[in-house]
Design goal:
This protein has 211 residues and is an alpha/beta fold. The protein has 6 helices and 9 strands; from the N terminus they run βαβαβαβαβαββαββ. The strands form 2 sheets. The protein has a 7-stranded mixed sheet, sandwiched between helices. It has a two-stranded antiparallel sheet with strand order 8-9. Helix 2 links the parallel strand 2 and strand 3. Helix 1 runs parallel beside helix 2 and helix 1 runs parallel beside helix 6. It binds glycinamide ribonucleotide. Glycinamide ribonucleotide binds next to helix 1, strand 5 and helix 6.
Length: 211
């Protein structure tokens, strides 16, 4: 096993990969103090794989097994990351829950972006959930991943106002635009600034600029 460096990053994605690309571009421009070493996908047809090719980032599809909402065996996923010295794992539209072996291998070092102001609208289709619920404010959350779905300590949130003349598509586009900015900024803060947990509260130590 290669030694794990917190700044050696991996992204896990299932689909389009726009957040993966935003993270990769931030890393390549120096805006994010780390290197995306590998992309892992659970779907061989994920457009994220093409983005990785264009960005010159290694991409792999380890076996998933037959279950749809989790990996049957997380071991090949963990081993692929450990063999590359990955110390921080970034979920970006990865649509499976992770469990003890994976969470233990990267304890407190797995982050996720979610397209709502958690704890509102956890789970699938959060933007559609918020649209149908008629909320006036929604947003984006970056949080640490724990065994509980979308409940880990929150690193950063940003609000997106729902306009009276909005469409679901226009709202979705604005939420994604915030994700593409907030996620790299929150990862940068996570890698750069000391932090500690007070229960579920993630607190960046004095002097850390707020994302
Ligand atoms: C993003 O909106 C991300 O927040 C969401 O999936 C989308 C992936 O888009 N993730 C979740 O809902 C996780 N619960 P992308 O593939 O273009 O980055």
């Amino acid at each position: 096993m290669a030694s794990q460096d917190p700044r050696t990053l991996a992204v896990l994605a299932s689909g389009r990969g726009s957040n993966f690309e935003a993270l990769a571009r931030a890393a390549q421009s120096g805006a994010l103090p780390g290197r995306i070493r590998v992309l892992l996908c659970d779907r061989a047809d994920a457009p994220a794989l093409q983005r990785a090719g264009a960005l010159g980032i290694e991409a792999l599809c380890p076996p998933t097994g037959v279950r749809r909402t989790r990996l049957d065996d997380e071991t090949p996923w963990i081993e692929a990351l450990q063999a590359r010295g990955v110390g921080t794992v970034l979920l970006a539209g990865f649509m499976r829950r992770l469990h003890a072996p994976f969470l233990d291998a990267f304890a407190n070092r797995i982050l996720n972006v979610h397209p709502s102001l958690l704890p509102a609208f956890p789970g699938l289709d959060a933007i559609g959930q918020s649209w149908r619920a008629g909320v006036k404010i929604t947003g984006v959350t970056v949080h640490m991943v724990t065994a509980a779905l979308d409940e880990g300590p929150i690193l950063a949130q940003e609000a997106v106002v729902v306009r009276d003349d909005d469409t679901a598509e226009a709202l979705e586009a604005r939420v994604h635009a915030v994700e593409h900015r907030l996620y790299p900024a929150a990862v940068r803060q996570f890698l750069d600034a000391p932090w500690h947990l007070e229960g579920r509260r993630m607190v960046f130590d004095a002097g850390a600029p707020r994302v």
